[in-house]
Write a structure and sequence with these properties.
heterotrimer; A mainly alpha (about 425); B mainly alpha (about 400); C alpha/beta (about 500); B: about 400 residues; mainly alpha; ABC transporter involved in vitamin B12 uptake, BtuC; two-stranded antiparallel ribbon; 19 helices; 2 strands; about 0% strand; C: about 500 residues; alpha/beta; Rossmann fold; 3 domains; six-stranded mixed β-sheet; 18 helices
Chain lengths: ~425, ~400, ~500
């Protein structure tokens, strides 16, 4: 055998005539990330990105004349994640309520993140989580305010089913357009978001077809008590923790199994990595695109119904405008690297950030809540920037030199000799 | 086989071309539009039969083409004809005066007004896509231009400095996008998305931090209109439309022509296109791929921010959180519909501007929900994308990071 | 040589992660000389020339031009020094015209605008001066590969190149076009240009070069004059051991037809006819070679049989079943095995493990999965068995395909296709880009499969491969089969048929 074939596996080297130098290289980031992710542990870069994002966010806070440490501390106190809050009897009650709030927000974030991650694994960027979530909300409200007299359990199932169906349709439209005419999913899902936003505002505006009984308020009727999701026995306060949080954790398990242990998941991953090879292998690429976006829509639609049946119960045009669950889900998926555990932790982080910056938790004397909301958007944006640019972190750690020799050969795939 | 007489050939060819399914389908589309138009001023035909028969004719033309393998255009002709009939019948049920109020010179100016910010962002988008970079951060760059423009204008009391401020903000966001996508080779769509979020958070934060609940001051200097001499204003139709257009509308018209010339007629344009089509080929003749791409993305940030400036202190006079409202994304669609050509993209922007203008006027006159009509441009984008894709070719290297050797 | 060489490369070393691509390489070029750089794929030829052209920077060593040490840190520097390169994969922009491509970055202009008419005029003058016929106003995507190559050469000459590097210039040409290229090289030489000719084809070297430098695994082995050099001697230098230039194979015993294609018509991506009425038959136990220049419909024909491309008209019968217009999966199920032309684009999902790649066709059936539920352990077990049988090295079932060498990746593809026991095996360029060891493996395996009664349709642009493997040879030109030959046909005869010559002769007769 030739010497080349005895080389260790990690040095595939330049035996190849790479077909076209530009086809082969993936982004440098991707390659470094792949190596770095496994070598240092997938956790290092997300954590470093998060820390860096908070640092930069702190600079903005300081530049506008506030104390960043004080602001962050106040935000953290409001999340219910500080173990010290549980020591004294007085703090404990408030901390429990905060923690419940964090978990309530955590629930839809996990699901919209899965909606992004699943499409990602099929090679698509689903920006449409927001629209898919919203149509799920509308469907849940529609079912939850009608069909009176249906047994509670059945009614809940119908409402959830309707939301999932709505999400499937909304995601599926983008999927069909991608599969048939090749319309880029980024554009179509963005357009579908806006259609869902304005369409929803139309539904619930004054005089709108689904506006509630109170004629002066652009809002739906509240859903019937029968469709309210049960709360955890020990939960307290105005917004008790509903069992939807268990559904979302179960969804993480479903997501992982669907992707790794089913033929559908195999197809989705194959198409995501290399659609041409998948087609050659006998996989219908268009069908995979459609199914991936439809299933993504199902997860996001489910999030909509859990929110409606779990704690919101009603939707106003105002809520539709300010809702950003689907967009935050993108940040969660990116930070969580499309992995179940990662999504779990990232969703917890963003949920905590949102709880901690809400007007109810934050003392205006320490840091104005109306600023804090924007600060959390800013930090999310920075996290996405840094996570997408693992290379930057590598630069900052001065680890670049080491990569010169240790990186995967894919770093230099255009080699030919 | 008998040969056709050479002299007869051109005529035969021409006849055949006119009866090709493609031509017939296009005729069908035109008939569908005509069906609607007949019910509008200045014709305002009130007999239902006329638009119906014209529309049906169009639909038949579409069907004929459909059966002869001209699938896409055939379906289009049928759809347009159906819509044309429906819209015509609806219009016939309306007051002539309200129709006149909707369909008038005002509609043309409204179209231009709505198209202006879109076109700035779209031309910006053409530059970065031609260089091989996807920029879905146009939306955020517009927002940054809108905020920082009005901020500087309010602080200095000068709309010119406000525009400069917007351009600097746009250039900065362009630079951030360029750094992460070109030097760091991160995923272009993810970075663009992050740019949007970043602009949303930053402008929202600063807006609340600086202006508090009252919002921007009411006496912000506005970008002025260009008032034409009276004799031009007196020309029917032309006068009312072009008499008092914003400086920015005139500017974008100039920019459209200029960018067409730059992209297709100058050395720098040739280099820009070469970088977007085949960066390695460009590099082997000594063109710096990175420099061109940086330049194109920063330029696109500047242009998008000008569109934002027009929104905040052009025809409006204030800033609101997230006030770009998805225009950056529509601009992105306009780039595709316009086939990466400045004039084509401007045409697409006019189409979307028309949809917005029509929606605004219908809402006032016909009492249709504003929210419902607001979905119109987005639905239009979806439909238009289905029609145009496959027949337009993006720059070959777009979206792919370039690794310098 | 008494004169000082025009160009000297001295002690060049270039390392890439895990590989030393050039190891203390020496190379020199005299004025007016054609100097061939000979070596297998992966020997370091292109790396050396990319260093000379400023695309890579050497870790050690120096470059001297006219005796002076120069530092070439970018292609523009190389151009300034009078060095031009014609890359193996053309550096031309398909949507632009020939003239635009040639003047790119040094555009003549009138005021701020490009002077396109001036550019076209200049290009026309140059093309007449050197006998490089090409239309300056034609779009690159609409002209032939040979013309594209001439445009590339003009691009270098336009920039005042004195030294021309031609990287594997004949790889994409027909024998006739190659002949024309050799004439062009002669006329360039007559004009005083110096040429580096990179190749791995021995016969070309002996035809065109004045001197020959052989590279092997990144090292200079020897520089020899053309006089006295023989193919066998060069081959030994190149590979480092004796090589068999022909494949040993027993005579074929063809059985029943397994694949029969009748009046097949297929369109290409642009909707233009690519396969125009092809009929052919492949019988069990024979290798049918499909010769032809790239782009004459071979790829489309193979794709159509594999269900990867729509069929406009005609029939494709595989083992008694009509699969014209069938999906890829239906073709696979009917018994088509397919080693695709481009293993990176199609053959492998590089991010998948070897086990996942080996199940690419069969993941939907037991034992890999049942009722949509995957059994990864079953996939791994199967993979372990196949990898062992085909002697794939460099990784186990759970190794990502991307981390294998090219030869081993191709073995994985061959293993997957063969182990499914297909009735007909389509082999598209099965040895492209492989080193000699891997080529021998693939060739031996194909012959073994044939001997065991499999029908094989081989597509290759390397005439030598077609001649040495096939039991029958079909020549394809402009979407049609223009002739059938037995393997004792000469390369020249095939070459004429590949450019449509055979058909014209028939028509004249």
């Amino acid at each position: 055998m030739t010497e080349r074939e005895r080389r260790p596996p990690e040095t595939p080297g330049p035996a190849e005539n790479a077909p076209d130098p530009e086809d082969a290289p993936r982004s440098f980031t991707e390659s470094v990330g792949a190596w770095f992710g496994t070598a240092v542990g997938g956790i290092a870069i997300p954590v470093a990105s998060t820390v860096l994002a908070f640092l930069v966010g702190g600079l903005v806070v300081a530049a506008t004349g506030h104390n960043p440490l004080g602001a962050y501390k106040a935000i953290f106190e409001g999340t219910g994640l500080n173990p010290l809050s549980y020591i004294s009897e007085d703090d404990r009650r408030g901390a429990w309520a905060d923690l419940q709030q964090t978990l309530i927000i955590f629930t839809p974030l996990v699901l919209t993140a899965i909606a992004v991650a699943f499409a990602f694994r099929c090679g698509m960027f689903n920006i449409g989580g927001q629209g898919q979530y919203l149509v799920g909300v509308y469907a849940a409200v529609l079912v939850g305010t009608s069909l009176s007299g249906t047994p509670s359990f059945l009614h809940i199932l119908i409402a959830i089913g309707a939301s999932i169906l709505a999400g499937v349709i909304w995601g599926g439209i983008a999927g069909i357009l991608k599969a048939t005419v090749g319309a880029h999913e980024v554009i179509t899902t963005i357009m579908l978001n806006w259609i869902a936003i304005y369409g929803g505002q139309y539904l619930f505006e004054l005089g709108g077809p689904l506006q509630g009984a109170q004629e002066s308020i652009p809002r739906s009727d509240p859903v019937m008590d029968a469709v309210h999701l049960p709360a955890f026995p020990l939960s307290t306060g105005l917004q008790p923790l509903h069992i939807g949080v268990l559904v979302s954790i179960a969804a993480l398990v479903v997501y992982t199994l669907l992707l790794n242990r089913t033929t559908l998941g195999y197809e989705v991953r194959a198409v995501g990595f290399n659609p041409e090879a998948a087609r050659y292998g006998g996989i219908s690429v268009g069908r995979s695109y459609f199914l991936a976006l439809a299933i993504a829509g199902a997860f996001a639609g489910l999030a909509g119904s859990l929110d409606m049946l779990g704690w919101k119960y009603t939707v106003a045009t105002n809520d539709i405008q300010i809702s950003a669950v689907g967009f935050t889900g993108i940040a969660v998926a990116l930070l969580g690297r499309n992995k179940a555990v990662g999504i779990f932790l990232a969703a917890l982080l963003f949920a905590a950030l949102q709880t901690g910056t809400s007007a109810r938790q934050l003392d205006p004397a320490v840091f104005p809540p109306e600023l804090a909301i924007h600060l959390s958007t800013l930090i999310q944006a920075l996290i996405i920037l840094f996570v997408a640019t693992e290379l930057l972190i590598v630069y900052i750690w001065g680890a670049r030199k080491r990569l010169g020799f240790g990186g995967p050969a894919r770093v230099q795939p255009e080699l030919k000799a | 086989m008998a040969t056709i007489d050479a002299a007869e050939r051109p005529l035969a060819d021409r006849l055949r071309r006119l009866t090709e399914p493609r031509a017939i389908a296009l005729l069908g589309i035109a008939l569908g539009i005509l069906a609607f138009w007949l019910a509008l001023p200045p014709w305002t035909i009130r007999a239902a039969g006329i638009p119906i028969s014209v529309g049906l004719l169009g639909a038949f033309a579409g069907l004929w083409a459909l059966m002869r393998d001209e699938r896409k255009l055939g379906i289009w002709a049928i759809a347009v004809s159906g819509l044309g009939i429906a819209a015509a019948l609806w219009a016939q049920g309306r007051d002539e005066s309200s129709l006149q109020a909707v369909v008038s010179v005002g509609l043309v100016t409204a179209t231009l007004r709505f198209a202006t910010p879109l076109a700035f962002a779209a031309i910006g988008g053409i530059f970065n896509e031609r260089s091989g970079i996807v920029n879905i951060g146009l939306e955020g760059m517009m927002l940054a231009g809108a905020f920082f423009g009005i901020y500087v204008a309010a602080e200095t009391g000068s709309w010119v400095l406000g525009i400069v401020g917007a351009m600097i903000a746009g250039a900065t966001f362009g630079l951030i996008h360029a750094f992460f996508t070109i030097t760091m080779r991160a995923d272009q769509i993810v970075i663009g998305f992050a740019i949007n979020f970043l602009a949303l958070g930053l402008t929202g934060y600063l807006f609340r931090s600086i202006y508090g609940p009252e919002g921007t001051p009411s006496d912000v200097p506005r970008i002025p209109d260009v008032s034409m001499p009276q004799f031009i204003k007196d020309i029917p139709f032309v006068g009312p439309v072009f008499g008092d257009l914003s400086v920015m509308t005139w500017l974008i018209i100039v920019i459209v022509v200029l960018s067409w010339a730059v992209i297709f007629k100058t050395p720098i344009g040739l280099r820009l296109r070469s970088v977007g089509e085949h960066p390695r080929a460009a590099e082997t003749v000594g063109i710096s791929v990175y420099k061109i791409r940086y330049g194109a993305v920063i330029l696109s940030g500047i242009l998008a921010s000008l569109g934002g400036a027009y929104i905040s202190f052009g025809f409006g006079g204030s800033f609101n959180e997230n006030m770009s409202g998805g225009r950056g994304f529509i601009a992105l669609a306009a780039v595709i519909l316009g086939k990466w050509h400045p004039v084509g993209a401007f045409g697409a922007c006019l189409l979307f501007g028309f949809a917005s203008g029509l929606a605004q006027r219908l809402q006032g006159e016909a009492d249709i929900s504003a929210n419902l009509l607001s979905t119109l441009p987005y639905v239009l984008v979806l439909i238009a994308l289905v029609g145009v894709i496959g027949r337009s070719r993006p720059p070959a290297a777009v979206g792919r990071p370039y690794v310098k050797q | 040589m008494a004169d000082r060489p025009l160009l000297e490369l001295e002690g060049i070393t270039k390392r890439f992660p895990g590989v030393v691509a050039n190891d203390d390489v020496h190379f020199e070029l005299a004025k007016g000389e054609v100097h061939a750089l000979l070596g297998e794929n992966g020997a370091g030829k292109s790396t050396l020339m990319n260093i000379l052209y400023g695309l890579y920077h050497p870790d050690e060593g120096e470059i001297r031009l006219n005796g002076e040490t120069v530092r070439i840190d970018s292609p523009s520097r190389a151009i300034d020094l009078g060095i031009g390169m014609v890359h193996q994969h053309f550096m031309l922009i398909p949507v632009m015209t020939v003239a635009e491509n040639i003047v790119l970055a040094t555009e003549p202009h009138k005021g701020p605008f490009i002077d396109i008419a001036g550019a076209e005029k200049r290009v026309r003058e140059l093309s007449e001066q050197f006998g490089l016929a090409v239309r300056p106003e034609a779009r690159v995507e609409s002209i032939s590969v040979g013309q594209q190559q001439r445009a590339e050469i003009l691009k270098a000459l336009y920039r005042g190149a004195q030294i021309l590097i031609l990287d594997e210039p004949t790889a994409v040409l027909t024998p006739q076009e190659a002949r024309e290229l050799f004439d062009i090289i002669e006329s360039l030489k007559a004009e005083g240009k110096s040429i580096v000719f990179i190749t791995h084809k021995l016969n070309e070297v002996l035809e065109v070069a004045d001197r020959i430098t052989v590279l092997r695994r990144g090292k200079t082995i020897e520089t020899v004059p053309r006089e006295g050099a023989t193919e066998q001697g060069l081959a030994t230098l190149m590979v480092g051991r004796e090589v068999l230039l022909r494949v040993d194979k027993p005579p074929a015993h063809p059985g029943d037809p397994v694949l029969s294609v009748t009046d097949l018509e297929v369109d290409d991506e642009r909707g233009l006819p690519a396969v125009r009425g092809v009929s052919l038959e492949v019988r069990a136990g024979e290798i049918v070679g499909l010769a032809g220049v790239d782009g004459n419909g071979q790829s489309e024909l193979v794709d159509a049989i594999a269900g990867l491309r729509k069929v406009r008209a005609g029939r494709i019968v595989v083992a008694g079943k009509d699969v014209a217009g069938a999906s890829a999966r239906e073709s696979l199920d009917a018994g088509v095995g397919h080693i695709p032309e481009d293993r990176h684009l199609r053959g492998l999902v590089l991010d998948f493990t070897l086990a996942e790649n080996l199940s690419l066709h069969d993941y939907r059936t037991a034992p890999e999965s049942r009722f949509g539920w995957l059994y990864p352990r079953k996939m791994v077990a199967k993979a372990r068995r196949i990898l062992k049988e085909f002697d794939v090295r460099g990784g186990g079932p759970e190794t990502p395909a991307a981390s294998l060498s090219g030869g081993n990746q191709q073995k994985v593809v061959v293993a997957r296709e063969v182990s499914r026991d297909p009735a007909i095996l389509l082999a598209g360029q099965p040895t492209r880009g492989l080193d000699v060891g891997a080529i021998e493996f693939v060739h031996r395996r194909l012959v073994t499969e044939r001997d065991e009664g499999r029908a094989i349709l081989l597509v290759s642009f390397e005439l030598e491969e077609v001649l040495s493997l096939s039991d029958r040879i079909l020549v394809m030109f402009e979407g049609r089969i223009v002739g059938e030959y037995s393997p004792d046909v000469t390369e020249e005869e095939l070459g004429i048929a590949m450019t449509g010559g055979g058909r014209e002769q028939e028509a004249a007769a």
